[in-house]
Design a protein that fits this description.
The structure is a single chain. The chain contains four helices and five strands; from the N terminus they run E-H-E-E-H-E-E-H-H. By secondary structure, the protein is of the alpha+beta class. It has a domain of 97 residues: 2-Layer Sandwich (Alpha-Beta Plaits), CATH 3.30.70.100.
């Protein structure tokens, strides 16, 4: 098996509420379990950051579906890597929803991952900082 990880960010479609997010998450968890995909999804005030891990072809196919999904706008690939082991292997998809203040607190706890915090924009962060933040969140929440 060739293990890969993709980390991306996206803007949530307007009007995407918590109930709809949870329904999508439950479908994703069922699908990911069948495919052996694991990961974490962070939602912060209209933005998503997600790490997905699994067989390279499955992860690539999932990322293509996400990129075409009308619920994700401005999808930006932040990191693609081949890995020896999973960082998020405990969950088909862990979900963390935070406010700007909570995200700032966790980012500061993660070695200043965001630097000067003027709002959550993962596209302005290094891929190492995004990954460190997601690992931190997976342990704290």
């Amino acid at each position: 098996m060739s293990l890969s990880r993709i980390i991306y960010s996206s803007q949530a479609a307007p009007g995407l509420g918590l109930a709809q997010q949870r329904a999508i998450l439950e479908r994703a968890r069922r699908s990911n379990e069948k495919l052996g995909i694991t990961g974490i999804l962070l939602y912060c005030e209209g933005r998503f950051v997600q790490a997905i891990e699994g067989e390279r072809s499955d992860v690539s196919a999932l990322f293509q579906r996400i990129s075409a999904d009308r619920l994700h706008l401005q999808v930006t690939l932040l990191e693609v890597s081949d890995e020896e082991e999973r960082l998020f292997g405990e969950w088909e998809m862990k979900f963390v929803s935070l406010t700007q203040a909570q995200t700032r607190e966790r980012a500061e706890a993660t070695r200043g991952a965001m630097g000067a915090f003027k709002g959550f924009d993962p596209n302005l962060m290094s891929s190492e900082s995004v990954r460190a933040l997601l690992v931190d969140l997976s342990r704290v929440y």
